[in-house]
Amino acid sequence: MVIIADSNGREIKYLKYSKFDFDLGDTMDFTITISPIDYDESIKYGNIIFIPNSEYAGIIGGIETNTSDDTVIIKGYCLRGILNKKVIVPPKNQAYKQVSGEIN
Fold it and tell me: For residue 84, how far is the Cα from the chain centroid?
């Protein structure tokens, strides 16, 4: 079961899917294939998708339709992919940078 939440983490709906692929090692992205019948306005860019009690989660970054096999493909980076792009750089001429705050 995949859950879609808004950008604030509030759960919107459960998603019925025919196929999903989370790549946590190489490309660090995901694709979820659904029927056009299950697609609605709650599935949009920036929403969060996740599978409860797992590390499978990500942010929707693209939505495509495939008319040849009548499917909708939802794509984006998984959380590992998003975190992999975050870099903390110390100020010039300093070896360290101290940061604080909520890591979630």
Answer: 13
